[in-house]
Each structure stands twice: as C-alpha cells, then as structure tokens.
Write a structure and sequence with these properties.
By secondary structure, the protein is mainly α. Among the domains are: about 5-155, Type II secretion system (T2SS), domain F (Receptor-associated Protein); about 260-360, Type II secretion system (T2SS), domain F (Receptor-associated Protein), CATH 1.20.81. About 75% of the residues lie in helices and about 5% in strands. Strands 2-1-3 form a 3-stranded antiparallel sheet. The N and C termini lie far apart (about 95 Å).
Length: about 400
C-alpha cells in the first residue's frame, strides 16, 4: 500500500507531520479526518511535494480571488459548503478552475473538511491559504477568513497589475531601440560603407568601429546566436542550484533602485501575510514558518527560518527581527508596540498596508524618471550612428572642395 507524507493541524491548532498508508490521496485525507487532523499537504513518499505559493501559475490570480470572494458570499448566506461548491462549479467557465472546483466538491461529498479538500490541491492553494481556511473552520469564522483571503488576493492582483503596467513602456522602448539599432547595423550601414570604401579616405574612429560592428553582425550572427543559446542553457542549469538562487536574490537586494523597491515589496508581503495568519488564529511559530516559505526572496526566507527557531525558544518576534538589517527599525518598533499592547496582528496589517503604499509611490516615481532616460538613451544611440555616417561625408565634401 502506498505511503503518503502529510502536514496537518489538530483541532487545537497544533501542527502534525507524519506519514500514513492509504490506497490514494483521497483515502489518506479520510483517514486523517478520522483522526481529527486537518490536512494541509498530502504527497506520495516519492514525490517532491507541492509548491509553497499562494496561487498556481496555470490559473490567473484574478480567477482564484474571484472564486474565494464568491465562496465567502455563499458561506455568509448560510449555504452549505457542498451546495456552495456546486454553485461555483456551475458558475465557472470550462477550464482548469472548474476542474479544481469539481474535485473539491467531490472531496466534500466524501466527508472531508474544506481545508482538507483544498489541501489536496497544493499547487493552487498554498499553505498560508489552507492554514487560514482550517483555522476559520475550527473557529467558526470561515466567512470572515474567506473575505480576508479574497481581499488579500485582490490586493496582490492589483500590485501585479501596477508592476506590469509600469514595466510595459520601458520594455517596449528597449525592444524598439534594439530593433532600430539592429536594422541600421544590418541593412543601412553596409550600403553606406561602399561609398566610403571607394573614396579611399581615412575614416574617423567612430565610423571604423561602427563598420566593424556591422560586419560582425552580418557575418557572425550565427556565432552570436550560439553564444546566446549557450548562455540561456547555462543559466537554466544554474537555476537548478539553490546556492545560485540565494546569491541572485542577495544581489537583487543590493541593486541601487530595484533593490529598494524589492525590499519594500517583500516587507509588505511579509507583514500582511503574517498579520492575516495571526488574525486567523494560526500559532505564531507556524505562521512565521509559513510566511518564510511564501516570501519569494531566499535571503529573507533563510533568516525567517532562524526566527522560527528563536520563537520556539521563547524569544519575542520583535527581538528576533531586530538582530538583522533586513528589517527596518520602523517595522521592528511597530511589532514591539503590537506585542506589548496585544495588538500584533493589527500592527502587522498596518505595516503591510504602509509598505504597500510606499511601494506604489516608489515605483510610480521610478518609472517617471526611467522613461525620459530611456528616450535619451535611445536618441543617443541613434545619434552616434548618424554622427558616424555624417563625419566621413563631411570629410568627402572637404576633399571635393
């Protein structure tokens, strides 16, 4: 009989990790339910487990947030969970989300809790999502928890949209600029070079360099292509190394402008997720562990794993975070005030909202400054090409005179 590893919560919120023998994931969930455990993850013993993410890449975040909002509305209207999932199934258009809702509904029909039914889809519903749903079911506040999850997912979708919108124009400018330069070097410059070669005149240095670059591009494009493909292949191999990921994430944090933006975004995500988990009744140690897994930057993730150990030893959250420069004094101070006043959850949510607004302001300002620099850079590159072409022409005119 196959063996499945599981992570689950008991009714009191205590975490349980172990293995269980069952014919399949559904039977494993049923056996765990009989033991009074709310499963958040069930994987075969030979499997690698699900992704620790808030949403699945194959399903847009907008669909997950909309499904969560609709489910919260139905639960708030006192509709039984099975009927609520049936309604959602009928509402969804054909696609992956509809199939996921169908599988969740089937598990509910077998007697599983909503957390256990969703926990069997770890690629879509991450540990933070499942933990909050399990806490909501245990505390009788499922509607409130789902509303909070929907709000959070919608906020994350808004952040992603702002980032995409802000980067669209610079990326388009870079593509157009590179395309114009390649066109000039590959098709325009070679036709002008013939005139210069016939004159037998000494060419300026800038013109000579431009001609050599054009010749290299036309005759050695295949070598450049091989180098590009080899570099891409090498990068993908390096992506399999955790040490490379850690070094790359550390480098990102040290970048002049992008590093500040990334730090602000990570702090916002950390504070909001941890605040939501604590508000939902998840124990602080477990909430910190989940938050560390959800935070995308590995430098922060590694430090938060150490924070979890210090919390288990009895240290306070503010004291554990204070030992690292990754967390600014303002955030640490707010957490310390929240711990002393018994309002840690509210302070974390306030801090998360503040950092999110700071990120919005910073990215708007950065993109406003970046756009004219891109236009200037593109104009400068084209200007150099024009100058390299005009200088020999002026020399020819002087010779003719």
């Amino acid at each position: 009989m196959p063996t499945f590893h599981y992570k689950a919560y008991a009714s009191g919120g205590r975490e349980s990790i172990g293995a269980i023998e069952a014919d399949g994931p559904t039977e494993a969930l049923q056996l765990l339910r009989q033991r009074g455990l709310y499963a958040t993850e069930v994987t075969p013993s030979s499997g690698a487990g699900g992704k620790k993410a808030l949403f699945r890449r194959g399903i847009p975040l907008a669909e997950l947030s909309l499904m969560t909002r609709r489910l919260a509305t139905l639960v708030g209207a006192a509709v039984p969970l099975y009927e609520a999932m049936t309604t959602l199934y009928e509402q969804e258009a054909d696609g992956e989300m509809k199939r996921v809702v169908s599988r969740i509904r089937d598990r509910l029909a077998q007697g599983n809790t909503l957390a256990a039914a969703m926990g069997a889809e770890p690629a879509l519903f991450g540990e933070s999502y499942i933990s909050m749903v399990a806490a909501g079911e245990a505390g009788g506040a499922l509607e409130i928890i789902l509303e909070r999850l929907a709000d959070f997912l919608e906020d994350q979708q808004a952040v992603q949209s702002r980032i995409t919108t802000a980067l669209a124009y610079p990326i388009l400018m870079m593509i157009v600029g590179v395309g114009v330069m390649l066109f000039l070097l590959a098709f325009v410059i070679p036709k002008i070079v013939v005139i210069f070669e016939q004159s037998k005149a000494e060419l300026p240095l800038i013109t000579t360099l431009l001609i050599k670059t054009s010749a290299l591009l036309r005759s050695g494009w295949w070598a450049l292509l091989i180098v590009a493909v080899s570099g891409l292949f090498a990068y993908r191999k390096l992506m399999e190394s955790e040490a490379f990921h850690f070094g790359r994430d550390r480098l990102f944090l040290r970048l002049p402008v992008a590093g500040t933006l990334l730090t602000t975004l990570v702090l916002s995500r950390f504070a909001r997720i941890l605040g939501l988990l604590l508000t939902s009744g998840v124990p602080v140690i477990r909430a910190t562990e989940i938050t560390g897994d959800v935070v995308v930057n590995r430098v922060y993730r590694a430090f938060l794993h150490g924070v979890r150990e210090r919390l288990a030893e009895g240290a306070g959250l503010s004291g554990a975070l204070k030992s690292s420069p990754l967390f600014p004094p303002l955030l640490v101070h707010m957490i310390a005030v929240g711990e002393k006043g018994g309002e840690l959850e509210q302070m974390l949510l306030k801090a998360g909202n503040a950092y999110e607004k700071e990120f919005d302001t910073a990215i708007t300002r950065s993109m406003a400054l970046l756009e004219p620099f891109l236009v200037l850079g593109m104009g400068l590159a084209v200007g150099i090409v024009v100058l390299a072409v005009l200088l020999p022409i002026f020399q020819l005119n002087q010779l003719v005179k």
